[in-house]
Amino acid sequence: MPLFPIIRPEGRAIHIGEDSMKSVSRRSFIKSGAAAAAATVAAPLLVRNWAFPAPAAEAGTFESGFGVTDALCRKVLAEAMSRGGDFADLFFEHTISNFLILEDGKVNRAASDIALGVGIRTVKGDQVGYGFTQELSEKSMLAAAATAATIADSSGGSAAVAFVPLKTKNYYPVRTLFSAVPLEAKLPLVQKVNERCFALSDLVRKVRIVFHDQQKRILVLTSDGLKAEDLQPRSYLAATVVAEKNGKFERAGWNYGGRREFSYYTPEVVDKLSRTAVERTLILFDAVQPPAGAMPVVLGPGVSGILLHEAIGHGMEADFNRKKTSTYSTMIGQKVAEPFVNIFDDGTVPHLLGSINFDDEGTPGQKTALVENGILTSYMHDRISSKFYGVKPTGNGRRESYQHYVVPRMRNTYMTAGPASPEDVIKAAGRGIYVQDVSNGQVKIGEGDFAFYVSQGRMIEDGRLGAPIKDVNIMGNGPKMLANITMLAGDFEFNEGGAGACGKAGQAAPCGFGQPSCLVKSLTVGGTRG
Amino acid sequence: MKKEYYNLGEQALKMAKSAGADGCRARVGGERFVEISYRNRKPENIKEATTKALRVEIYVNNRFSSQSTSDLRPDALKSFIENAVASTKLLDEDPFRTLPDPKYYQGRQTVDLEQYDPAYESLTPAVRHAFVKAIEEGCFARGGDKLVSATVQGYDSHEEELQMTSNGFDGYQEATVFYGTAQATVKDEGDRRPMEFDAAMALCRQDLPSPETIGVGAAERALALLGGIKIKTETLPVIIENRVVARFGGGFLQAMFGSNIQQKQSFLADKKGQSVASRFLTLIDNPFIPKGVGSRLFDLDGLTARKRTMIEAGVLRDFYVDWYYSRKLGWEPTTGSPTNLILPPGARSVKDIMKDLGRGILITGFIGGNSNSTTGDTSIGIIGQLFEKGAPVHPVSEMNIADNHLKIWQRLVEVGNDPYPYSSQRFPSLVFADVVVSGL
Predict the structure, then answer these.
(1) Residue A126 domain-assigned (yes or no)
(2) Domain that holds residue A259
(3) pTM, to two decimals
(4) pLDDT for the residue A156
(5) CA-based nearest residue in chain A for residue B27
(6) How far is B91 from chain A (nearest CA, A)?
(7) Among all residues of chain B, which has the CA nearest to that of A144?
(8) Same domain, A58 and A127
(9) Which residues does chain A have within 8 Å of residue B372's beta carbon, measured at their own beta carbons?
(10) Which chain B residues are closer than 8 Å to A325 by Cβ?
(11) Mean per-residue pLDDT for B360-371?
(12) pLDDT (tens digit per residue) in B112-138
């Protein structure tokens, strides 16, 4: 389950790893073209004047823009249920994604993608039939529904006669759609970060800036009569800096974003981003070889929350437990950590990357306790697993797009603050390492073994921060790591990034995370210095 | 379908021109696929669909953008392309942003790459289900009582792709893809449940192994992880198993891309003609292998495919330079991405090599990790077996290797005789000396 998966230049490579079910086709060659551009840290653009048929707050986009009426949806759902099944749902999507890229001082590349389609799912017990179509015609939708229906083999089930609109809170209100922001307004934003980065140090040699914005309009209709429509914004501003000192090159970067609209990107954000990216690059010239072996690790606040995502998050997704493939599948109700440890997965944090007003099967956004006072409390459920366990869905049924069926996924996963000061946490570590920035991670669900890659950190010597370190992988085991959390500080932070994505079952999903400074008694640090 | 693709491509080029583009590349891509997975001897997921999408790359006065859509309704398409051209005009001028010089389209081979298997047409639901069931039975049979869970999947598709440019390029290719995989989870001591997978992919259905062997392979690999422990940090020889070499080698490969070189993010930028690895590393990029997963006659720029020696007995000979970065660097373009990568196999099997190595680790999987293309530093978690004198001692878990690509490839001491057949990167197992393996 790599977080921030490394995107390969072209498709068709088998993804070797935990996520072996990933499709190997060139199916999304067009998309991967855009993704590859983004991966090389390039890719935003917004088509000017490309407006939705309806304003952001107004429901009914799919009906007014694409002729998707309730009557048509009832007919399609009836076809999806024509061979029986517990329920069926339709997931309509219209997503506009834009990338604007600055390289060598010029905004010389833009990319955009428009995704339109509907996914149709029939569920029988834990079995799923799925078809999708990019053509929203009655004929195409009925054919996709017939494909979905093949999972069931009895007589016809029933579909709702009327739909009841779902009312939810809005955790990411949008005042101005990205499609209403002219390209001319975005260009200076990207240029300013570039200028600022070069102005901050004469060691800077290359700067690459990406501005990405996306507006994803979704409509979920179920055979039990639910109708839910949402507009999910997503954006980020990212800077990658290459600097040169005494013939040696170093690279680092940073990004800010989330479910944010354009007004978020103020001069303060531009300044903060430029400073962070440049400072994080320059410090690497002083980095020493990282150590190797088991030692105390202090995770700094914010982005280190990836640790939770890998060490406990994936293992608590209910599908892995329903299938008994997770190391956590027998631990509900048991003590897994010290009483001061509380871990949540939460879709309701305003503007955070993993927030959702409702999930991709219509369950309202909510906050779920995974660990409460050290006790393992709840898995993260979709409708299938909640039925299996006889509990309410937790709103974790998510999917990458209409081309994918729902699986339980994290939203924003975080650990709450403790009473210590950050200095005390570092002092208590004695000799070890301090983690400042993490670029990616992965977990083996069954063993609970996980890894995360520290792109930047510091040595801890005699209870104080020492020389910088970089590029070191850290290994641990989820349940052991939880039991080994011995101190938490009061400096809780959410990671305010917008560029990350979690990969599971061949699907990418935006996730958020956060945590305070945290001392883990022992993890394996994969350095070169024994 | 081919005709439909050409109609759409031609229409897009025409629309782009009338909207004011002075150059355009249109790509039309799509596929028909079926995906079936089983668990507990019944279908878990059945998924099937047809996709089609258009991508246009617009050039206006040395300004460039690349835009794609799956909304192919005629009205939507027209405004999509008009908007694409209008927004491209607002970007910064970059003299290097042009379609390739058509001379690089010349000389295309006429060889049949045999990427379409007519057997695809005779696939029925019954055949597909039988294939997946057989994978599952293999997994059950080998996993026995220890098996906690098996999830198996079969996938097949017919893919098509057309590329046309306003300066005369025209290329169409189609392929069939057949894929089978199994994931096995077995019960270990305590709460550990080791999971492993096996998979095979081929463009010709006959080239797949029997489905049972995929299931057996997954179960065997999971069982081999039972009792995994962490050992003390130690400097040891390691063997990286064929099927995971690509993941480790990717950190080296990314430094060979023109984009990274031009952006000062490549530790290989100034190393052409120099030794970057031991004499055991030769790397050939061969686009013409019949039925090859990475075979092609032209690349994403339309540049004619050629066989290239990238690394010769440890000496770096070539880079992956696409049209745009070739112009920025002032170099000749090669191609923007690898095709089939061939590393000529050695003489001995992994088993025989292990006998001579004394104490070492056979790495069968990686976890997490990353690689810095600017400096070559890399650090990655490993899964595998500790062995002594050819005999496995026990599996290792929660361990890691770290090195620098410019150093570790110089310590490549032997190449196995087992090129991995189910990928475009046909790497054999590789043996490295003196690697820091961190644990306790």
Answers:
(1) yes
(2) 178-216+234-285
(3) 0.91
(4) 72
(5) A30
(6) 6
(7) B49
(8) yes
(9) 251, 470-471
(10) 148-149, 151, 183, 185, 193, 195
(11) 94
(12) 999 999 999 999 999 999 999 999 999
Share of chain B above pLDDT 90, in %: 95
| Residue of chain A whose alpha carbon sits nearest to that of B366 | A17
SS3 A200: helix
A3 lies in a domain? no
pLDDT, tens only, B65-84? 999 999 888 888 999 999 99
Structural domain contains residue A221: no
User: Tell me: the pLDDT tens digits for A408-462?
Assistant: 999 999 999 999 999 999 999 999 999 999 888 888 988 889 998 999 999 999 9
Residues A442 and A373 in one domain: yes
What is the pLDDT, as a whole number, of residue A58? 58
Q: Note whether A391 and A272 are same-domain residues.
A: no
Enumerate domains of chain B plus CATH numbers: 2-100 (3.30.2290.10), 118-160+170-223 (3.30.2290.10), 228-440 (no CATH)
> Complex ipTM, two decimals?
0.92
Percent of chain A with pLDDT over 90: 75
Task: Give the number of other CB atoms < 10 A from CB of residue A106.
Answer: 18
3-state secondary structure chain B: CHHHHHHHHHHHHHHHHHCCCCEEEEEEEEEEEEEEEEECCEEEEEEEEEEEEEEEEEEECCEEEEEEECCCCHHHHHHHHHHHHHHHCCCCCCCCCCCCCHHHHCCCCCCCCCCCCHHHHHCCHHHHHHHHHHHHHHHHHHHHHHEEEEEEEEEEEEEEEEEEECCCCEEEEEEEEEEEEEEEEECCCCCCCCEEEEEEEECCHHHCCCHHHHHHHHHHHHHCCCCCECCCCEEEEEEECHHHHHHHHHHHHHHHEHHHHHCCCCCCCCCCCCECCCCCCCEEECCCCCCCCCCCCECCCCCECCCEEEEECCEECCCECCHHHHHHHCCCCCCCCCCCEECCCCCCCHHHHHHHHCEEEEEEEEEEEEECCCCCEEEEEEEEEEEECCEEEEEEEEEEEEEEHHHHHHHEEEECCCCCCCCCEECCCEEEEEEEEECC
A123 & A206 share domain: no
Mean pLDDT, residues B25-46: 94
What confidence category does residue A243 fall into, taking pLDDT thresholds of 50, 70 and 90? Answer: very high
Residues A422 and A439 both lie in one domain: yes
Contact A49 B370 (CB under 8 A): no
Residues A364 and A425 in one domain: yes
Same-domain pairing of A209 and A108: no
Tell whether the model's pLDDT for residue A14 goes beyond 50.
no
Of A15-29, A514-528, B418-432, minimum mean pLDDT range: A15-29
Residues A58-88 have pLDDT tens digits of 578 899 888 999 999 999 999 999 999 999 9
Across the interface, do A127 and B42 touch by the CB < 8 Å criterion? yes
What is the CATH number for A264? 3.30.2290.10
Burial class (CB in 10 A: 0-12, 13-18, 19+), B87: buried
Is B51 in Cβ contact with A27 (below 8 Å)?
yes
Residue A60: predicted pLDDT: 83
The pLDDT, as a whole number, for residue A36 is 34
For the cut 60, the answer to whether the pLDDT of residue B284 exceeds it is yes
State the pLDDT at residue A43.
Answer: 23
In a domain, A24, yes or no: no
Buried b / exposed e over A410-446, threshold 16 CB at 10 Å, is bbbbbbebbebebeebbbbbeebbbbbbbbbbbbbbb
Among the candidates A143, A165, A187, a domain finishes at A165
The last residue of one of the domains, among A285, A314, A344, is: A285
- Written as six digits, the tokens of A162 are 């009327």
Q: Is B61 on the interface with A (CB under 8 A)?
A: no
Q: What is the number of domains present in chain A?
A: 3
> Do A198 and A326 belong together in one domain?
no
Query: Per the structure block, which two tokens stand in for B357?
Result: 């190595």
